[in-house]
Amino acid sequence: MHTKISGKHIDIGDALRTHVEDRLNEAAFKYFDRPVDAAVVFSRDGHGYKCDSSVHLPTGLTAKAQGSHGEIYAAFEASAERIEKQLRRHKRRLKDHHQRRENPIEAIEAQAYVLARHEDEAEETGAGDHGAEAEGANGAENGLQPVIVAEMKTDIQTLSVGEAVLQMELAHAPFLMFKNDANGRLNIVFQRDDGNIGWVDPAIVADN
């Protein structure tokens, strides 16, 4: 299994790299009989560490998990345990999905952006209440114009609705946008507050 290990402003020693590779290999090969790709990123989290792990499965789906701890090895272990728990929980569904799907999962590349929060903009400009008054005087244009603080590439996969729900759960994401392989439209599935899954399909409704 190819594992990419990196750190944000953190030096990753050979001992940690070896430990990460061995641990993820052990977890992955419990549930899959052929190699998968993985990525692990370490970063600072206050006085401790944060570890973001992702394992790309042979089914085409990706399991993701995050762990935090004051010690870097423990932060990784927390992340690895969550990855393994997801694989164990969804083992049957993943294997069923892999057996049903005849073709690899396709994906289209899209541009993703991170927008500044309104409160952050106010703090940077030193606005506060006076800033709100000024905004009102100048019109709502300033408050509605998004400020892009970061941009990145992301993939939108072509999935069935069931696969999209599984991918969302594996990634611990609140929602997932995907291309519905049944109709070719962009759809969204999302976690509802009542514990159920919401599904949005912008079907074209003919005018009466």
TrEMBL record:
Ranges for domain Sigma 54 modulation/S30EA ribosomal protein C-terminal come to 145-198
Q: Which SUPFAM superfamilies does the entry link to?
A: Ribosome binding protein Y (YfiA homologue)
Q: Which residues form a coiled coil?
A: 73-100
Q: Which UniProt keywords apply?
A: Coiled coil, Cytoplasm, Translation regulation
Q: Which Pfam families match?
A: Ribosom_S30AE_C, Ribosomal_S30AE
Range of residues in the leader sequence: none
CDD domains assigned: RaiA (cd00552)
Give me the ranges of the annotated region Disordered. 119-138
Q: Where in the cell is it found?
A: Cytoplasm
Question: What's the subunit arrangement here?
Answer: Associates exclusively with 100S ribosomes, which are dimers of 70S ribosomes.
HAMAP family, alphabetized: HPF
Q: What PANTHER family is this protein classified in?
A: 30S RIBOSOMAL PROTEIN
Family in the record: Belongs to the HPF/YfiA ribosome-associated protein family. Long HPF subfamily.
Function field: Required for dimerization of active 70S ribosomes into 100S ribosomes in stationary phase; 100S ribosomes are translationally inactive and sometimes present during exponential growth.
Protein name as it appears in the record: Ribosome hibernation promoting factor
Origin species, per record, is Paralimibaculum aggregatum
